[in-house]
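G., the chain you wanted modeled:
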Amino acid sequence: MGVFCCSLLACQKPSEEKNNETVIEESIPSRPLAKFEPKDGVLLFVGQELEAVGGLEKYNDGYLDHFDRPAGWTTYSNINPGENSFGRTQEGLDGLWETHDWGDNDYNAILQHNDPDYKNMALAIGLQFVHHEEKVADGTHDAYIDKLGDFLISLGKRPVFLRIAYEFDGDPWNHYDRKSTIKAYRRIVDRLRAKGVNNTAYVWQSVGFISGQEQLEGWYPGDDYVDWCGVSFFNRWKEIEMFEFARKKGKPVFIAEASPTISDYFGKLYGVTKETQLGNPVQAQEAWEKWFVPFFDTIDENDDVVKAVHYINCHWDSHPMWFQNPTFSKIDARLHLSDSISKRWRERTGTSKFIKSSPELYDMLYNNQ
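Predicted structure as tokens:
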């Protein structure tokens, strides 16, 4: 695992004669499929809080209420008991069994799991433990890992993509300690496997624009601990090096966070983005040209590794967590607010390339293991 199974010469297509010149075409090296990796196509996920995803009695103006059901949805939780988050003291594993709001609106994964509108959908969980990586690594927080294992097992056959310490290199907002985080990541995987969790693929997610190849290698937990490489896709998407890294490791890529953000003149230095309200026709058109088109182009240009994507359908600027955030403080990314964006989104994601919810989804993902 983690290396290409053929040499460059072995992977070359037969030569062709063109204008009396011999041309050798190279094909993409084959590699084993990762856990829950589709052989063909891209899994479409949508998130991230209850309001954004919708499909529920109380939360009924989200993605599921306006578009075809995607292959999966995304939620978030934590192992950072005692930490304060916008007026809430976290308990650890918040938002899995009960409705909790830590400044980013309501989360409740089991509510979604039990609702028929979420049938035949995979689940992606972003799990953070900022300030607690040492306690996770040394076993102090094993009870939380075990309880997380109980939750995952309770989901039955539903495929889960667990993004452990997502955006691990996201300093200053995450500022994880590298060595402790690697140990914590491995401990979580080892303990969940020992508990018998078999419906979960483990995703190792970088911010994207921060780390180069050497830095990514320095954060890497190892091939045996990483099923998928992950990356975020926001305003500095041109600087992503994860696609190249994933190819070297023989892993698929999950674009695990993506939402329309366009850098202004201070985007490079301070992360500041332009106001982007998809309900504003002028701003929606600019977002389509400067973010959505590059997003879909990136998927197409890296289709050998990009096998899952997650669109964050969020009313960012209505949530206290993002009021002072330079990237998201002026963003409303809800697709249904724009007829033109909605139409083009349906056209692009309506092709056979994008995998959505279906009665065959689970069998397809498990059969590809």
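The longest strand covers residues 72-78.

Shout if anything looks off.
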